[in-house]
Amino acid sequence: MNDQQAPGAPTEPLTSADVSIVTVSYRGDLAIAQELCRSVDAHLPDGAEHVLVVPRSDLALFEPLAGPSRRVIAVESVLPRGYRKIPAPRRITIGRFSRQVREIWVTPRGVARGWIIQQIVKLSADAITDREIVVFADSDIVLVAPLTLEHLARAGSVRLYRVAGATADLPSHIRWHDVSARLLGLSVSGYTGADYIGNLITWRRSNVLRLQRRLAEVAGRRWDRVIARQQRFSEYILYGIFADLVLGDDESGHCRTADDLVHAGWFYDLTTSDGVEGFLDGFTPGQVGVAIQSTERFTLAERRAMIDRIADGTPGSTGADG
């Protein structure tokens, strides 16, 4: 990790017992979540925990994954008061027309999409765990090497994934930066200088609590109500800007790094043979995980084969169409 030790940052000893890997999932990702859990069981640091956060209606499906180092809890138990999922069919089919229905929630600020609720869940990390190092692992990640404390923290400082200048040309990301700066009461507008979106993103629980207070102070209302009304928003950018521009090096307890712990398929066109081969060849030393988005067309067997080849350092074709 190419980290920069923050002067004056907290230097309290951190151990694996301070680590909580958090996965927000649902029944549609159950099969790949099971793959993640198997890999976490193989590569989780001793003393760390893994928490699966799923809708209450999906608890029975995920509870068999619970174990000595893994808890399964309901999304509804994490959210602040006043949130209710609207019962709705998961898919509407009329003749040849078929469309998956997104989750819709009633919130204290009106109706919100499931995507916004998922981000509020992550920003409620203090209700998920009492451990200081929170590591977000999406269902579509598989660990292929040990995830050690040294990957996550050095000398009391926790890694902050920060890539200067990245995505500065993407209008959607610029809007996310702009919204985050406004919510934090900052005078900056547009892109704020760095991107914070990735896999195995690490936060400090103590900073999450400070972020909640900052949002409430700026808005003059409960922090989650501000988020619930947003249409375009990124929780990772919000936290990153808060750690970077509000807390700063002296107070954040973070060390910055542009090193990605996960080899992600979203950087490749996995609909082509060349893209798949590039992905299979792209794993770099120091990475501990592989991510293939759940929206990709691969079967579970094909996903396993690709991940096994990457882990074994054996690139090759999986038969994707050219």
Strand order of the largest sheet: 3-2-1-9-15
Shape: globular
How many DSSP helices?
12
Topology pattern, helix = H, strand = E: EHEHEHEEEEEHHEEHEEEHEEHHHEEHEH
Largest beta sheet, briefly?
5 strands, mixed
Alpha-carbon distance between the two ends: 36 Å
Account of the protein in words:
This protein is 35% helix and 21% strand. It has 322 residues and is an alpha/beta fold. The strands form six sheets. A five-stranded mixed sheet has the order 3-2-1-9-15. A three-stranded antiparallel sheet has the order 4-7-8. The chain has a three-stranded mixed sheet with strand order 10-18-17. Helix 7 (171-183) packs across helix 10. The longest helix has 18 residues, at 235-252. The two termini are 36 Å apart. Residues 1-9 and 314-322 have low confidence and may be disordered.
